[in-house]
Amino acid sequence: MAAINIPRNPSEFMKSISILHIALFAGQFMLAGIIFYLKGSYDLKLSSANNILFFIVPGIAIAGLYFGNKIYQQRNKKIPSESTLMDKLEVYRGAYILKLAMVEGPSILAIMAYYVTGNLLYLLIALFLMLYFFFLKPTLSTIENDVNFSSNEKDQMRKN
Question: Quick check: is 48 in a domain?
Answer without folding.
Answer: no
